[in-house]
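Next comes one such specimen:
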Amino acid sequence: MPAVPPAAAYAVVVDFPAYPRLFSEIKVARVLSIEGKRVRAEFRGHIVLPFRYVIDLDCDPEALTVDWRYVEGEVVRNSEGGWRFAAEGNGARVEYRVAMEIAAPVPGFLLRKITDGLVALSLPAMFASVEREALARMGR
């Protein structure tokens, strides 16, 4: 994100209630609890099938990192991943990783094809949305 400081991008990513506005596949995002730097959040949405999952997110505003682990869900059976933000030039270098296990009533080969396709399609849109929102919050 060439024009977004790392802290501005991080602030967008940890604004979980804003996810339905930022990411079209998320319809509901609720913070269930906050204990120190750990946030438990529930996400509901629709990508081919309706889904629901709860994850624990460890948010570190000093290191500008977010790591998450799966707690429970429907359709989504496991998920872990994270964000890392660092200064690069006048903007932010963003590292994102995700592993997700989906259980749906379709053959495994088709499910893998759908999952891989959705990730390939949604990642660029997700990064663009974070950048657009950060710039808007910065008044640009």
About this structure: Residues 7 and 51 are 30 Å apart (CA to CA).
